[in-house]
Design goal:
alpha/beta, 5-stranded parallel β-sheet, elongated
């Protein structure tokens, strides 16, 4: 969606809330989807969409084609997608260094600052802290009880972070492409717990 320069959307949307809204079986799915639908005038950046795709495919092992399709549908909804140009990029690099946040978060924060937006929706604790430092209010639909449910679901459904998650993704790829190699790999890595 495109808005004229005098109609800037005042509320920024971070990647994880998009991710949760698109995950059908995640405990935060319904809450985040409703949160996004019930509020108007969202904006996000092209980099945030790319970050959401990477998270959905690499962490949650979602089908890449389906993720691209769902993010395409999402992007034509009532949301302004900001293209990242050189001036945003250069300012975001400085913000990322100063506030010690990820680049995609710094780009979103810079986009908010450029348009005078005073609200960002995020579940990212570092971004919340950064927003507080630059007087941008934070909205987050995820409360303590839901966070516990999410942690429980993720420990049951996702490989442990770090090496086990990486080995699990390699195993999944091998299963789709080389079944015998997948079996050997899984055996040699102790079920994804250590390097072969």
């Amino acid at each position: 969606m495109t808005l004229s320069s005098d109609q800037y959307a005042p509320r920024g949307l971070d990647a994880m809330l998009i991710v949760y809204s698109l995950l059908g079986n995640h405990p935060a799915s319904a809450v985040c989807e409703a949160f996004i639908r019930e509020r108007a005038s969202w904006f996000t950046t092209t980099l945030t969409l790319l970050e959401a795709k990477a998270i959905l495919t690499k962490v949650y092992a979602a089908n890449a084609n389906l993720v691209s399709q769902r993010l395409s549908q999402f992007s034509v909804g009532p949301i302004e997608i900001i293209e990242v140009d050189l001036s945003i990029t250069l300012a975001a690099m400085q913000i990322a260094d100063t506030l010690e946040i990820d680049m995609t978060d710094a780009v979103l924060l810079q986009a908010a600052r450029i348009r005078g937006a005073n609200i960002l929706a995020t579940d990212d604790r570092k971004l919340v802290h950064a927003c507080n430092q630059v007087d941008i209010a934070v909205e987050n639909p995820i409360d303590t009880q839901l966070r516990r449910q999410m942690a429980s679901w993720e420990s049951e459904n996702l490989p442990q972070k770090g090496l086990p998650r990486i080995l699990s993704r390699i195993h999944q790829w091998l299963e789709q492409n080389h079944q015998q190699a997948a079996e050997d790999f899984w055996c040699q890595t102790g079920g994804g717990s250590h390097l072969p």
